[in-house]
Amino acid sequence: GINNITHTAGTGSSGGYVNLSSTDSASNYLGQNTNFSITSGGPTVGNAIWIDWNNNLSFETGERVYVSTTYGTTVSGNFAIPSGTSVGNYRMRVITDYNNFAPSNSCGNITRGEYKDFNFEVLNCATTVTSTADAGPGTLRAALACVVDGGTIMYDQPNTATTILTAPLTIDKN
Prior knowledge:
Strand content: 25-35%
Radius of gyration: 19 Å
Mean pLDDT: 82
Oligomer: single chain
Shape: elongated
Helix content: under 10%
Low-confidence stretches: none
């Protein structure tokens, strides 16, 4: 992603639910895969991720973007932002369950584990550079993440004498 979450779990929460959506946020551009890694506190842990893509305050079966297939302390993978998703903020729920290697319930009682909600922001993918900053919207780094093979990156920053390149740039995203 463009903005990643690094969250260290504590000893658990009362009721097994923590809402971090106002403080912890991840983001990525439309059309990009979002990589993730989850490290849990034990070898017999299952994980799942849901994103409420339709913002109806309900995590539906089709909104589960990842589910583990075996127990593991650390899992990683990626998910795609669905085609047609609007730019904006969405609730993302990450589940760690010590009793189920493939969590399938996005909401409910959990005796050993936690439900944690985060914010996930979908950003508009632009291939025009408007900033000389190192990262963030309008930067060369953001444009590189968005451009498709054979695509063009434009530079649009009026009234500046900034040199971006002094030689040809070849990019191979393979």
